[in-house]
Design a protein that fits this description.
Strand content of chain A: 15-25%
Order of helices and strands of chain A: EHHHEEHEHEEEHEEEHEHHEH
CATH class of the largest domain in chain A: Alpha Beta
Low-confidence stretches of chain A: none
Oligomer: homodimer
Number of domains of chain A: 2
CATH topology of the largest domain in chain A: Ribosomal Protein S8, Chain: A, domain 1
Shape of chain A: globular
Helix content of chain A: 25-40%
Mean pLDDT of chain A: 96
Largest interface: A-B, 92 and 92 residues
Number of helices of chain A: 10
Strand order of the largest sheet of chain A: 2-3-4-11-5-6-7
Largest sheet of chain A: 7 strands, mixed
Chain lengths: 364, 364
């Protein structure tokens, strides 16, 4: 986390109420608004600030542009026992994805596993939230989504893939659950913007300019610059990050009948949609697998604790530099913020005040 | 591909027969030997030379050390409709994994998807082979395995993860199938060894020394040096490669009841097994999903062609530098080698001659 400028602290409940108020005034049902708010605030409390209430302005922009349906009828359009496809009816991904995940969990109870492809949706927040919905059921959860094209394939200078995240959540016994949640980009755009604000040089490999060449000039992000796939540079296997992003794009976009590649609808309303869309909206893919179908859940969870303990006690490079397991840092932030509050920087606070004015709400 | 020293050309059939002869003399049934040989030779014809017949010497070494059962009874030990766990009975992964994949495909016909965790197995060759078994059934295939620990987690200097590959195969209509098959390491050990033979400097990020620090001295690979997770360096998000490797280790090792982390049995027979093993043998995870459960298969395959064509025609950085889609290069090599033969370098040829002498076979 990087705090810049003036910070204000909020409780989770306060941020949740702000998000609910905004979604309700946009026309959402109270139930859907509460669901969407829960996804957003879960990002804030876990320290993934870029995907929390700071995004409200973006959702409002898309809604004003007529790109989000606040009263979607989320329906199964095709199914085959453990698998199904959902039409999100142009709704908020924050609402559509958790509904699809609930169905996946129901299918997993019936068939051992459940897998849903989702078309006609929008940005779904943090992938980890949806994967983690499986945890209380002693299931492994997974979620993927495609996203605004901002990454060129290896050898290309055209943005064809989004940050396309992959998340898996694994239940544990006494330890915190293991949550893998990663964008298939080398770094998030937010990290480059923070470096810019702080006047720091970024490492070679974080971004390319509009010609596809490695660039360390952060100003180029606003002039056709793009992110890189995980791996960063061709010599460090950026083709693997490109392959992972492709895998996510096919599972979420092609399999569901959503858009894919350069046609994925951008999150920002000022960017136009491309013509000749091959599908509907944005795509997700979610899944749940019951542990009991593979191994007694108690045994698996004890082994997960053992796995985590063995990684936590792996020999360190520097004695004072801890080895973290995937998802651990987010749990640590959640524990800290639950006590001390969630910091929002002045830009986000101003954005929320602006939304309050726009809608005649006293949000803060 | 890098050819060093004297090269000899072989047909696919010849290499297949060599592998069958070796597996048979090790005690394999003719049927199992043919299956295992097919997996190996599929790697050779696709240009993944490190995973082809060059590995025969390694399998023989493990068998001589009593670590491979050549007449395994491969059985389902637990199941729940779309999910199951297989005990590989200490057999060759080359035999155990395709058998598990066949079951996954059967389950997918019945329930829309099929998922198998495999314990008590050994090295299974290229992950892509198993994933691609789903293609003729109009299914998406996937396969993962854990492997000899050779990668330290971020902040650690202890090898806790193998190259832990992930493979997904997607059927197409007129284009070659899209096959994602990648190790979650930054680069393969073989690539570093080739650089060493050729006296070339390796890029920063390919390996670390025994203290966990970045090293460009390839000699350190034999002195406790290790590979890095995809991402290569902490500043380029090596924690994401570490998270992906962890995801594979848990799905293959913990979920199945196999070994995981530092306890995964090494491929080379001269390295001892660690004491206090938490599971049985090495672990895999395979799966198959019927396209029809999500979308009409013909529609999906036409969209896959369109996806591939749009990526192939993405704007290039350099006009003469083609944009490849995942798995394309391997298909191109397969097409070339099917005509011209498969080159084996003199080290591999000598190894095979040595096996011939050992077993009293005229292999070449």
């Amino acid at each position: 986390m990087h705090f810049c400028g003036f910070m204000q602290l909020f409780t989770k409940e306060k941020l949740r109420q702000i998000a609910i108020d905004v979604f309700c005034v946009m026309g959402s049902s109270t139930k859907d608004a509460a669901l969407a708010a829960d996804v957003l605030v879960n990002a804030d409390i876990r320290g993934i600030d870029s995907h929390g209430v700071s995004r409200l302005v973006g959702y409002v922009g898309l809604w004003e542009a007529g790109r989000i349906n606040m009263t979607p009828k989320v329906d199964i359009v095709r199914e085959r026992k453990s698998t199904f496809t959902i039409d999100g009816d142009g709704g908020l991904g924050l609402v559509v994805a958790p509904k699809a995940m609930r169905i996946a969990i129901e299918r997993a109870k019936e068939y051992g596993s459940g897998w849903g492809a989702i078309q006609n949706s929008n940005h779904f927040g943090i992938a980890g939230y949806h994967a983690m919905m499986a945890l209380p059921h002693d299931m492994i959860g997974m979620a993927m989504t495609n996203a605004t094209p901002f990454i060129p394939p290896t050898h290309s200078k055209q943005a064809m893939l989004g940050t396309n995240p992959i998340a898996y959540a694994f239940p544990t016994d006494k330890r915190r659950p293991l949550v893998v949640d990663l964008a298939t980009a080398s770094v998030a755009r937010g990290k480059i913007e923070i470096a810019k604000r702080e006047g720091k040089q970024i490492p070679k490999g974080w971004m390319v300019d509009k010609h596809g060449n490695t660039s360390q000039n952060v100003d180029e992000l606003k002039d056709g610059g793009m992110l890189t796939p995980l791996g960063s540079l061709e010599e460090l296997s950026s083709h693997k990050g490109y392959a992972l992003g492709s895998l996510v794009d096919v599972m979420t976009g092609v399999l569901s009948g959503a858009n894919y590649g350069k046609w994925v609808p951008p999150f920002v309303s000022f960017l136009p949609m491309l013509p000749n869309l091959p599908g509907k909206g944005l795509g997700h893919f979610v899944g749940a697998m019951e542990i009991e179908g593979f191994r007694p859940a108690s045994e698996f969870k004890a082994s997960m604790d053992h796995w985590i303990e063995s990684f936590k006690s792996a020999d360190r490079i520097k004695a004072d530099q801890e080895v973290f397991v995937p998802g651990e840092k987010e749990y640590l932030i959640e524990e800290e913020r639950s006590v001390n509050g969630i910091p929002l920087n002045d830009v986000v606070v101003k954005d929320l005040e602006g939304l309050g004015k726009k809608f005649g709400l006293s949000l803060l």
